[in-house]
Amino acid sequence: MATLRQPFNTHLNLGNGVLVPEGVKVVRHLSDMKDMYQDQGAVQRLLDNGDPLIYVVYNVEVPEEAGELRHCTSIVYPGRVGNEFFMTKGHFHSKVGTAEIYLTLRGRGILLMQAQDGRTATLDMFPGSVSYIPPYWAHRSINVGPEPLVFFAVYPGDAGHNYGVIEEKGFAKVVLAQDDAPVVVDNPRYVCRRT
Ligand code: S6P
Ligand code: ZN
């Protein structure tokens, strides 16, 4: 029989998303994902001016094993690279047939998803939205508002993360600011080929 582990609480600050204990913190600056943005001139200007913080993830320490439920909060800061909103890198799960739930606590976002055949979908993220990402969809969170976008996520312990496909091909859509409002448009740099 598997080892019986002790139940435990984590405190989630519903205002800013910070967990206590903090768990494993992942920090992403623009330099960690600079090739993912459209406007490389804007990327360079921001890098020259100090490499902005784009997002932070606080991961509760749970084994990455079948039967477990990994959970974490993500905080995507407000800002733009040119006219493209700050966003997460985005990924498929390594075990691609695993789902995920996002509960948004603060801010406004767009959850951009893409299936392996290139189909895309979006959901609005707002305080109280519970977004279901079914199996087989890559997912990226985009902050389209003026304050931090904060959301809590739960996913299977053995899901894993596959960043390679998105790093190589991008998403078929990008979210840009037009007169300050977010618009979802075709990505001119999308590498159109099946995974
Ligand atoms: C994990 C879940 C989120 C993201 C986080 C950062 O499966 O989808 O916790 O990891 O929002 O995004 P990314 O694409 O850099 O992992
Ligand atoms: Zn995920």
Structure description:
The chain has about 200 residues and is mostly beta strands. Helix content is about 10%, strand content about 40%. The protein contains 2 helices and 15 strands. The chain has a 6-stranded antiparallel beta sheet with strand order 3-4-5-13-8-11, with no helix packed on it. Strand 1 (about 10) and strand 2 form a beta hairpin. It is globular and about 55 Å long. The model has no long low-confidence stretch (mean pLDDT about 95). The protein binds D-sorbitol-6-phosphate and zinc ion. D-sorbitol-6-phosphate binds near residues 72, 88, 90, 100 and 161. Zinc ion (ZN) binds near residues 91, 139 and 155.
- Unreliable stretches, pLDDT < 50, 5 or more residues? none
Strand content: 35-45%
Largest sheet: 6 strands, antiparallel
Q: H/E element string?
A: EEEHEEEEEEEEEEHEE
Overall geometry: globular
Widest sheet, order of strands: 3-4-5-13-8-11
Give the tags:
15 strands; 195 residues; six-stranded antiparallel beta sheet; binds zinc ion; binds D-sorbitol-6-phosphate
Element layout with pairings:
Blueprint: E1 11-12, E2 19-20, E3 24-29, H1 40-48, E4 53-59, E5 69-76, E6 80-81, E7 84-85, E8 100-106, E9 109-115, E10 120-125, E11 130-133, E12 137-143, E13 149-156, H2 164-169, E14 173-178, E15 181-186
Antiparallel strand pairs: 1-2, 3-4, 4-5, 5-13, 6-7, 8-11, 8-13, 9-10, 9-12, 14-15
The structure holds D-sorbitol-6-phosphate (S6P) and zinc ion.
Zinc ion (ZN) binds at residues 91, 93, 100, 139, 155.
